[in-house]
Amino acid sequence: MTHEVTFYTRRDCSLCDAAEAAVRAATVLHHLPLSISLVDIDDDPTLQAKFTDDVPVIYVDGVEAFRHRVTADELADWIAKREPRRSLAQETCVPCRGGVSPLKGKELTALAKELGGDWRIIDEHHLEKEFTFPDFAQALAFTNRIGAIAEEQGHHPDIYLAWGKVRVTIWTHKAGGLTRADFVLAAKMDQ
After folding, report:
1. Is 190 in a helix, a strand, or coil?
2. Can you tell me the distance from the alpha carbon of 181 to that of 95, in angstroms, rounded to the nearest whole number?
3. Final residue of a structural domain among 28, 47, 82
4. CA 91 to CA 188: how far, in whole Å?
5. Where are the alpha helices (DSSP H) in 31-179?
6. Rounded to an integer, what distance in angstroms lies between the CA atom of residue 67 and that of residue 160?
7. Which domain holds residue 35?
8. Rounded CA gap, 32 and 52, in Å?
9. 12-46 burial, b for 16+ CB within 10 Å, e for fewer?
10. Per residue of the chain (191 residues), what is the pLDDT tens digit?
11. CATH code of the domain covering residue 129
12. What is each CA distance from 134 to 68, 159, 167, in whole angstroms?
């Protein structure tokens, strides 16, 4: 999504120049897709009356975000706080090509909390969950549905199918433990 940034500014304003430079730097440093418009308030009497000497004023997507000063980091943080956060289930599994360290400690705890759904982290190595069903046919149908998801995502769990239950075990073999992709796949299965 490209964000519309409007600068209300005026000529010979050092604060305006510094703020504009910071916003342009944010496009490079934080890879922010921005469409930047400069509006000189001295060209419009209504804007002159509204802002007087209170420039620069920076609007992002139609909302006043900053007055006088902004840094590239502040702008990136402001935008990030307003963007809807995607759930794990909305992400796509990114295949591991090796050379990735498995997640440990706080990273695992945070992802487990975000995942929820009774998944268990076993020895900081793999995720496991058992799903129960009233009969074999429904357990088999579920197995086929999650198998299709795994194939689509290119991330394949261990699946144990028995009468009335399916146990799923997920980890990233090339990492030798858990990666974000494992939590993404688990969230998709819960859906």
Report:
1. helix
2. 8
3. 82
4. 9
5. 45-51, 72-82, 105-115, 136-153
6. 59
7. 3-82
8. 30
9. ebeebeebbebbeebbeeeebebeeeebbbeeeee
10. 788 999 999 999 999 999 999 999 988 888 888 899 999 999 999 999 999 888 999 999 999 999 999 999 999 888 878 766 567 777 777 766 667 788 898 888 888 888 887 899 999 999 999 999 999 999 999 999 999 999 999 889 999 999 999 999 999 988 888 988 899 999 999 88
11. 3.30.1360.20
12. 64, 18, 15
Contact (CB, 8 A) for 37 and 5: yes
What are 10's two structure tokens?
């005026």
Instruction: Give the total residue count for the chain.
Output: 191
Of 62, 82, 102, the position where a domain reaches its end is 82
Q: Which residue, among 100, 96, 124, has the nearest Cα to 112 in the 3D structure?
A: 124
